[in-house]
């Protein structure tokens, strides 16, 4: 396969019947599949074979889905392009020569290329919505707590949610119906999704819908992206929706707060990879510290090391209050801002990504610039809210995504609104 | 540039805390990048103090025995094992 969509191609058959019978699904390679290796796009877990299924995988099987492979991804979910994978970059099937977005780039590409009907990704700061936007498909980041994270290899566990991809909003909602709901293995799950019927909400009815457009999420965005965004908004207006501008002053600080929190959590979560219980083992001799440090030097790529080290720094003595505590303040501020904006509108709309897909290789050298590309998606993870990215059109032949954000557990409303576009 | 500009010794120290060996090239590259990134993180100083929601509650399950992985499954991914245990290098 020329696009390098899958790290491992393997058919895992589900139950004989169920709501997803006859449906193929690609699963991001940081979601555990019993007996099938789960690498997280890393040399560290190149040979790791989980002894159990993630809850979402059990639910896929019970629903009759056929898993067709483990999809490529940025190493441990850290990236915006799927170029940091140890197994090589994925090409964008919708815009060849460009990145598919990240970190769930393989999952979005699988749907865009027709290699799978549906796919699962994980979204810590936009990792479902970004590749959905870049590949011209639909991606949903559920409310925090709607979908079990049991069996998802943790990176930033206070931020991340597993989310579905589909060609249409209804397709993605159908997959969300299967994976949503409480789980005894994940105490952060809630009961709101237990008897969901999100697919039925995809009626495309936006008559009377009040849409808030946060001005801060349009500032600095690429001109062609902004034009495409407004064309889609005009389309929604033509179907009876109304929009007005809203302000979210806190989002100016969301990117730095997000990265401080995500890196801090990463430094803790990735401490488990020691090459003793599992993970890459080095040939180095010496004591436990020497061997451990060598295995991690060899097993982790640049972006993973960068985030573990910066997270360790942000949590170290003398810097905790300066970075981590301030980031938590910013997170609380972002939540308040969204609550306020959503009291004046049913949903909020913005471009998903402020830029069209980068060319392959274009963006890797400057990590800070790449972090800034996540400006429109990370605030939603800080606020624990649901969001959806739907195709809005193209600029210079490259896909543009429109992001809708709703109140906590407002997935039915988001799905109803987004289905007017795809 | 902040008062706490990152120097190579600091990067090496953090790498030691995080148990990641770095070669000299990596230390050089990360030193420059960390200076830029941490300077950017310092704009968090502009964030006002915010009242946080106080509705957090611990979620505890009953402390009861329940099935878990058997030891063969738990050891399956270990590079080295001995007598049903993980085998690692000496601690000191």
Provide a descriptive summary of the structure in words.
The complex is a heterodimer of chains A (422) and B (92). Chain A is α/β, with parallel strands linked by helices and 422 residues long. Chain A has a domain at 6-206 and 348-420: Amidase signature (AS) enzymes, CATH 3.90.1300. Chain A is built from twelve helices and eleven strands. In chain A, α2 (105-112) packs parallel to α3 and α6 packs across α9. The longest helix of chain A is centred in the last third of the chain and has 24 residues, at 320-343. With 92 residues, chain B is mainly α. Chain B has a domain at 8-43: Histone, subunit A. Chain B is built from three helices and two strands. Chain B is 36% helix and 4% strand. The chains are: A alpha/beta (422), B mainly alpha (92). The interface between A and B is large, with 60 and 50 residues.
How would you concisely characterize the structure shown here?
The complex is a heterodimer of chains A (422) and B (92). Chain A is of the alpha/beta class and 422 residues long.
Chart the SSEs and their pairings.
The complex is a heterodimer of chains A (422) and B (92).
Chain A: E1 6-12, E2 24-28, H1 55-62, E3 66-71, H2 105-112, E4 118-123, H3 129-135, E5 138-141, E6 161-166, H4 169-179, E7 210-214, H5 223-238, E8 242-246, H6 254-269, H7 288-299, H8 302-315, H9 320-343, E9 347-351, H10 367-372, H11 378-382, E10 387-395, E11 398-405, H12 411-418
Parallel strand pairs in A: 2-3, 2-4, 7-8, 7-9
Antiparallel strand pairs in A: 1-3, 4-6, 5-6, 5-10, 9-11, 10-11
Helix pairs in contact in A: 2-3, 6-8, 6-9
Chain B: H1 8-17, H2 24-41, H3 71-75, E1 81-82, E2 85-86
Antiparallel strand pairs in B: 1-2
User: What is the arithmetic mean of pLDDT of chain A?
Assistant: 97
Outline of chain A, from the CA principal axes? Answer: globular
Total E-strand runs of chain B:
2
Q: Kindly, what is the distance between the CA atoms of the first and last residues of chain B, rounded to a whole number of angstroms?
A: 40 Å
Number of helices of chain A: 12
Helix content of chain A: 25-40%
Identify the biggest protein-protein contact and residues per side: A-B, 60 and 50 residues
The CATH architecture of the domain at 8-43 in chain B can be named as Orthogonal Bundle
Strand content of chain B: under 5%
Helix proportion of chain B:
25-40%
> What structural category arises from helix and sheet content of chain B?
mainly alpha
CATH C-level category of the domain at 6-206 and 348-420 in chain A = Alpha Beta
Q: What fraction of the residues of chain A are assigned to beta strands by DSSP? A: 15-25%
According to CATH, the homologous superfamily of the domain at 6-206 and 348-420 in chain A is Amidase signature (AS) domain
In spatial order, strands of the major sheet of chain B run 1-2
Identify the quaternary structure here. heterodimer
Poorly predicted runs of chain A: none
Coarse shape of chain B: flat
């Amino acid at each position: 396969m020329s696009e390098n969509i899958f790290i491992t191609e393997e058919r895992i058959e589900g139950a004989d019947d169920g709501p997803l019978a006859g449906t193929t699904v690609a699963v991001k390679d940081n979601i555990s599949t019993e007996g099938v290796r789960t690498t997280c796009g890393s040399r560290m877990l190149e040979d790791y074979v989980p002894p159990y299924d993630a809850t979402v995988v059990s639910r896929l099987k019970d629903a009759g889905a056929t898993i067709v492979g483990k999809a490529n991804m940025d190493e441990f979910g850290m990236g915006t392009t799927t170029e940091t994978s140890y197994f090589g970059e994925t090409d964008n099937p919708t815009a060849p020569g460009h990145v598919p977005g990240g970190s769930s780039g393989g999952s979005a590409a699988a749907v865009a290329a027709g290699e799978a009907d549906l796919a699962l990704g994980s979204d810590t700061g936009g990792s479902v919505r970004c590749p959905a936007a870049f590949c011209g498909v639909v991606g949903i980041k559920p409310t925090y707590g709607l979908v079990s994270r049991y069996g998802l290899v943790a990176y930033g566990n206070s931020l991340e949610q597993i989310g579905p991809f589909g060609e249409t909003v209804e397709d993605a909602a159908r997959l969300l119906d299967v994976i949503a709901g409480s789980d005894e293995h994940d105490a952060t799950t809630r009961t709101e999704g237990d008897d969901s019927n999100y697919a039925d909400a995809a009626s495309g009815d936006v008559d009377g819908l009040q849409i808030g457009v946060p001005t801060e999420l349009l500032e600095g965005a690429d001109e062609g992206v902004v034009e495409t965004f407004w064309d889609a908004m005009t389309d929604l207006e033509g179907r009876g929706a109304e929009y007005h501008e809203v302000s979210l002053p806190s989002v100016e600080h969301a990117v730095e707060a997000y990265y401080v929190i995500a890196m801090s959590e990463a430094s803790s979560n990735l401490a488990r990879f020691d090459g003793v219980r599992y993970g890459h083992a080095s040939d180095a001799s010496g004591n436990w510290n020497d061997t451990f440090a060598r295995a991690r030097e060899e097993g982790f790529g640049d972006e993973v090391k960068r985030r573990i080290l910066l997270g360790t720094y942000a949590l170290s003595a003398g810097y905790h209050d300066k970075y981590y505590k301030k980031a938590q303040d910013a997170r609380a501020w972002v939540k308040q801002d969204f609550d306020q904006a959503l009291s004046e509108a049913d949903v909020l709309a913005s471009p998903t990504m402020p830029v069209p897909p980068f060319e392959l290789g274009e963006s890797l050298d400057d990590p800070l610039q790449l972090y800034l590309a996540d400006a429109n998606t990370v605030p939603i993870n800080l606020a624990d809210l649901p969001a959806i990215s739907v195709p809005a059109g193209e600029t210079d032949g490259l896909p543009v995504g429109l992001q809708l954000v709703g109140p906590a557990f407002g997935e039915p409303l988001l799905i109803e609104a987004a289905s007017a576009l795809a | 540039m902040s008062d706490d500009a990152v120097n190579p010794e600091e990067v090496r120290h953090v790498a030691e805390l995080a148990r990641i060996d770095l070669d000299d090239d990596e230390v050089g590259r990360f030193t420059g990048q960390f200076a830029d990134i941490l300077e950017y993180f310092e704009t968090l100083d502009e964030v006002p103090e915010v009242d946080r929601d106080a509705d957090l509650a611990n979620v505890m399950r009953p402390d009861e025995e329940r099935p878990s992985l058997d030891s063969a499954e738990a050891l399956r991914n270990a590079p080295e094992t001995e007598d049903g245990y993980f085998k690692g290098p000496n601690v000191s």
